[in-house]
Design a protein that fits this description.
By secondary structure, the chain is of the alpha/beta class. The chain folds into 2 domains: 172 residues, HUPs (Rossmann fold), CATH 3.40.50; 92 residues, 2-Layer Sandwich (Pantoate--beta-alanine Ligase, Chain: A,domain 2), CATH 3.30.1300. Helices cover 37% and strands 21% of the residues. It has a 6-stranded parallel sheet with strand order 1-4-3-2-5-6, sandwiched between helices. The chain has a 3-stranded antiparallel sheet with strand order 7-8-9, with helices on one face. β3, α3 and β4 form a beta-alpha-beta unit. α6 crosses α7 and α9 runs antiparallel to α10. The longest helix has 16 residues. The structure holds pantoate.
Length: 288
């Protein structure tokens, strides 16, 4: 258990990280919006394994919330988050105010097109531009580092990876495997909103992904057929309403002919007002 240093300003962050780098310490960075759970812990553990100094940012980013998405109700639990960070050997928690992050109205935003407007972007216009913009700012504040993101939010990871490459940012982006409940449900802060019945049925996401992977293992390369198979499985859960089920190249997220190379299966399913996402992948390079 450590006591992380809590920093509130960009200047303090620069000073502390400047000293760490002067001592030759490598920096691992885990950007979060707080309300830290086991999924975040796994990112921090990986960052601590691979780096000398671990920074976690806790910032609920207004730019990635739509007007109806109720930014004010998003959980803010800094005291508890500091305890979690201490348990995971985090050195620095950077928790800036909105004014510190956005001292003046922002005129410059980052948009990774067309990745920002497909799949989740279609139902959350502006969301991924808000994510890309705040992550670009955080990368600039933290400086050269390895940065850790959950594969659970695959589209976010694809957008951030592409942005980092396109803008030549001095950051190595690392995707970390999704943490799951024993029955296969991906951990998400949204799972608590499910009723008992919806929670039971929510395992359908994992089963649909498995059905898609099985079809690919059997040699199917038509993305539409794989999507249809996953959709069929989702429909076996009476309370599930499918948003999308796709099989796509893992980086562009848009199918262009038969599937080959590194493929990702992505799903979004609603249970009442709760929208769950999940994904899994396979490399078809050998034998595709
Ligand atoms: O995944 C999240 O928690 C957020 O989208 C991120 C990457 C911290 C940007 O606000």
């Amino acid at each position: 258990m450590t006591t992380p240093t809590l920093l509130r300003t960009v200047e303090d962050l620069g000073t502390v990280l400047g000293s760490a780098r002067a001592e030759g310490r490598s920096v691992g960075f885990v950007p979060t919006m707080g309300a830290l759970h086991a999924g975040h812990r796994s990112l921090m553990q990986r960052a601590a394994d691979e780096n000398d100094c671990v920074v976690v940012s806790v910032f609920v980013n207004p730019l990635q919330f739509a007007a109806h998405e109720d930014l004010d109700r998003y959980p803010r639990e800094l005291e508890q988050d500091l305890v979690v960070c201490g348990e995971e050997q985090v050195d620095i928690v950077f928790a800036p105010s909105v004014n510190e992050m956005y001292p003046s109205p922002i005129l410059t935003t980052v948009s990774v097109s067309p990745l920002h407007r497909i799949l989740d972007g279609a139902s959350r216009p502006g969301h991924f531009d808000g994510v890309a913009t705040v992550v670009a700012k955080l990368f600039s504040m933290v400086g050269p580092c390895r940065a850790y993101f959950g594969e659970k939010d695959w589209q976010q990871l694809a957008i951030i990876s592409r942005m980092t490459t396109d803008l030549s940012l001095p950051v190595t982006v690392r995707g970390c495997p999704t943490v799951r409940e024993p029955d296969g449900l991906a951990l998400s802060s949204r799972n608590v909103y499910l009723t008992d019945e919806q929670r039971t049925q929510a395992t359908v996401l994992r089963r649909a992904l498995d059905a898609g992977l099985e079809l690919l293992a059997a040699g199917m390369r038509d993305p539409e057929a794989v999507g249809v198979r996953m959709a069929e499985v989702v429909r076996t859960a009476s309370d599930a309403e499918l948003d999308y089920a796709v099989a796509v190249p893992a980086d562009t997220l848009q199918a262009d002919g038969d599937l080959s190379g590194v493929v990702r299966l992505l799903l979004a399913v609603r249970f009442g007002t709760t929208r769950l996402i999940d994904n899994d992948g396979v490399d078809l390079s050998n034998g595709s």
